[in-house]
Amino acid sequence: MKPIKRPRWKRVAAALVLLPPTVAGLVCAGFYLNLHRQAAAMSLRALPVALPPSDPERRLLILAPHCDDETLGLGGTIATARKRGVPVTLAFLTNGDGFRVAASRALKKPLLGPTDFVRFAELRQREALSAAKELGVAESDVVFLGFPDQGLLPLWQECWSDSHPLRSGFTAQTRSPYSVAQTPHVLYSGESLTRELSKLIVRVQPTDVYVTHPSDDHRDHSAAPNFARAALRRSGSDATLRYYLVHRGDWPLPQGSHPDDPLLPPVAMTKQETHWAAIPLDEEARAAKDRALTRYGSQMAVCERFLSSFVRRNELVCSLPEGGAGWHDPLSDNLARYTNPAADITGVSARRDGAALKLRLTLRGNASPRLRYVLHVRGRSDGRTLDHSALLTLRPTTLTGPTAEASVPLAALGLKPGEPGRAWVCAETFWTGQVALDRTGYREISF
Question: What are the residues whose beta carbons fall under 8 Å from the beta carbon of 293, sequence distance 6 or more?
């Protein structure tokens, strides 16, 4: 029997239908292949070595946005420090109650209500205490602040004042519902979180504070350092502030269990202002970190491959320059950013222009009117805290080539034209509606 041959126009139509997904697939494959190739070409020898703390006179304060971040970023360092008699305090800003997939699995409930998220948070607290014990940290040195999961950025940007608290989208509370907390029933506001951190810093008197990096892709993680810096300033502490990273694109590469491999920074973050250092871990420290991670059963059940990626020969810490007139942002380390040059932020800068502050956003491609560009700025003059200053959200008024610019009066930031000042600045790019493509963390600039 002779096969039926489809008309030519139907074959062409079928090929045209398949063309877009084929091209998209090739772009994706090329992006990830190049990312892995660049990561494989990196070497631990290129990084300076930072030895684990060994002086008992030092006091470490580890700030974790969620229960497990402290182990992922610094578990081996914590275990080594405790073995050498260095005091370590672990402080969890939130209890991670908003991880719906993990909560549903742990509680065996597909539909969750506010009380279920509280129960899940209490489970995560118990897991954190078990993990801390594996790392050598006593329960008395573990602090739960109890602020809302996925709420740290809203606390910073929208609900700073005590008069306008945040209502958690998970527990439906405006105050902490947890019985285990530094301050029971603490109010959900940015001012409140800064006070709680300041109180903790005054009590612990740390010499070294570690918190997540401003360029971490998770919004809780990128907002945490804002509160850390504000609390350090408020408390008058001269502790050294260092950063660790948990989420950035597909990092760490390769993912999965590779305990004998080095942990290297994301390729896109090696050419920026971030100064990385590798903390070598011996077998005992790695084993302690691995045991601590297994204590987070609710997390290992849903993302074991990702979590196990952090058990390597070393851990990473870094520092960032303070002040300056701007900074550079990592490039092309996410598929959405890679395929949208007009949305891929390369840097942010500011300069004083008379009685105004001029802000410039630079991009990898030419700025597009089809995208939405947003700048957030909060002013702070030298000698004053930012506690009562307003956060302004600006849309750039000028799009020229690969730049977008906006201007804000110094008076709107609570600053006088003749006085030196600082501002906290963050930039975002969006596709239609609220589809975020790129976002910088908040950084302080001087002018």
Answer: 68, 71, 72, 75, 131, 300, 307, 308, 310, 311
- Cα gap 372→345, rounded to integer Å: 12
Spell out the SS3 assignment of 176-217. CCCCCCCCCCCECCHHHHHHHHHHHHHHHCCCEEEEECCCCC
Polymer length of the chain? 447
Q: pLDDT of 183-216, one tens digit each?
A: 999 999 999 999 999 999 999 999 999 999 999 9
pTM of structure: 0.90
Say how many C-beta atoms besides its own lie within 10 A of residue 180's C-beta.
16
**DSSP-assigned letters across all residues of 384-430:** --STTPPEEEE--SEEETTEEEEEEEGGGGT--TTS-EEEEEEEEEE
User: How far is residue 143's CA from residue 90's CA, in Å, rounded to a whole number?
Assistant: 6
Tokens 């008309």 — which residue?
Answer: 7
Written as six digits, the tokens of 292 are 């601590």
Instruction: Give the number of other CB atoms < 10 A from CB of residue 250.
Output: 17
